[in-house]
Design brief:
Neuraminidase, 42% strand, WD40/YVTN_repeat-like_dom_sf, PhoX, TAT_signal
Length: 389
């Protein structure tokens, strides 16, 4: 079909004919389910902006955790520019939030440590002198995979506590990496690629828990429906880019965020404004959200980017542009705005991640209110409230 770019075909196949169910997590487990549709969310819509310029539902509050090029409160550590992908990790009775820096040459990643009451107890560097660190993902063994977004970019495995030195993982491929998500059941790591004709990959380490060796595979098929995987012949040193080494590899228009839960890997593509759902148990690829497949009202989610989820099965999708919102796609199949930033029109929302207990949501405005390309005005936020489990 040339596959997945032909929206007219997909509208007829998914909406007119009834979608193939996406199993493993959200509403798609019900037969005949269609991609998420607008509706009322579990918290009500965002109210007026608070003192931090964040519009939130009733019962939720925000605070600023860090600002680019300024010391993180009480630590003396200067927060990096252009904060991007992030994740949270348990740390005794507290937790750690890590964040990438999407700038050339000195990108890397930093971390903020929190006590059990949410107070900041430290901030520090966990990765140095890497380039354009965009998104990434957490591993089940407690490390952060920081992904470089350029043609020969690599994945770096880092220690959120800042104790162990970061290590490059070239076996995971050299390409324009975006995000990663670990699947502990099949013992693989899924990877997105931010190219207009990019691919979706999985890495099978020789030994689970050791990413230094293994096999990189690419998703192959003709569009939504059954798919297979094929080995990428030369993932590290190549004359032909990884995305062009396997005939029949599925193409995606700008791979972005990636999140695994309950046998399903959800990933976003910005060129067609979609959230995809790969059911790893059945090897079926389907569409969880597409603004062109909204059948009633106005599509609330545009400019899809980073994605995360809750233990209860809700997805939270950040916007790059759009209305500068984080939208929730509920487990009931409703897509609706959760929060919105005011005065950040030249920015994008990045790095959404929940604290280990699910009570706090962290995210950044990469360029803040200044809109400066290198992100020197970036702001990292925390939202606290009655998130449902």
């Amino acid at each position: 079909m040339g596959g997945i770019g032909r929206r007219g075909f997909l509208r007829g196949a998914v909406v007119g004919g009834g979608a193939v169910a996406v199993s493993g997590g959200l509403w798609q487990a019900a037969a005949g389910a269609v991609p998420a549709q607008p509706g009322a969310g579990p918290y009500g819509g965002p109210a007026g902006a608070d003192a931090n310029g964040v519009r939130l539902p009733a019962g939720f509050t925000s605070r600023v955790v860090a600002r680019s090029m300024q010391a993180v409160g009480g630590t003396g550590y200067v927060w990096h520019a252009a904060p991007d992908g992030g994740a949270c990790f348990p740390d005794g009775e507290g937790w750690i939030y890590v964040s990438n820096s999407e700038v050339p040459v000195v990108g890397g990643a930093s971390a903020v440590r929190f006590a059990a009451d949410g107070s900041i107890t430290g901030a520090y560097r966990i990765l140095n002198l890497t380039q354009v660190n965009c998104a990434g993902g957490a591993t089940p063994w407690g490390t952060w995979l920081s992904c470089e977004e350029y043609d020969l970019g690599m994945v770096y495995e880092t220690d959120p506590k800042g104790v162990n030195a970061a290590k490059s993982r070239p076996a995971m491929g050299r390409f324009k990496h975006e995000a990663a998500a670990a699947d502990p059941v099949r013992k693989v790591v899924y990877l997105t690629e931010d190219q207009t004709d990019g691919c979706f990959y999985r890495f099978l380490p020789t030994t689970w828990g050791d990413l230094s060796k293994g096999t990189l595979e690419v998703l192959v098929g003709t569009g939504p429906g059954p798919v297979t995987w094929q080995k990428v012949p030369n993932p590290q040193l190549w004359l032909t880019p990884t995305r062009n080494q396997v005939a029949g590899a599925l193409r995606f228009t700008g791979g972005e965020g990636c999140h695994y839960a309950g046998d399903v890997c959800y990933f976003t593509t910005k060129g067609d404004n979609r959230v995809w759902a790969y059911d790893a148990a059945t090897s079926v690829l389907e569409i969880a959200y597409d603004d062109d497949l909204v059948t009633t009202g106005t599509a609330p989610l545009t400019g899809v980017d980073n994605i995360t989820g809750t233990s209860g099965g809700d997805l939270y999708v950040a916007e790059d542009g759009g209305d500068l919102q984080i939208n929730v796609i509920t487990r009931e199949g409703v897509v609706t705005p959760f929060l919105q930033l005011e005065g950040h029109t030249g920015s994008e929302i990045t790095g959404p991640a929940f604290s280990p207990d699910g009570s706090r949501l962290y995210f950044s405005s990469q360029r803040g209110t200044t809109g400066v390309v290198l992100g020197t005005g970036g702001v990292t936020f925390e939202v606290t409230g009655p998130f449902r489990s």
